[in-house]
Amino acid sequence: MPSPDPDTDRIERNRILSELDVDAAQSWVPGLSREGMLAGMHKARYECPDIAPELRHISGEWLRARGFCRLRGLPLLPLGELPV
Length: 84
What we know:
Blueprint: H1 6-19, H2 22-25, H3 34-47, H4 53-65
Helix pairs in contact: 3-4
């Protein structure tokens, strides 16, 4: 259950995405495979401006190497660019 403090929730979300903590994220989408969760986490991390740019670039590279797109089916940005 989410905490009553949105800042605490955002901090925890950012930690989970930054660390790619698949076990902690499983509660977000119960029943999704670990591979599916990892792909979704890389997509979310790539999009999230709260995450360190170097981690977002790593996620972009991971997505690109596996032929994935961005959230909502958008194409990945050119190398070196990040969503705002």
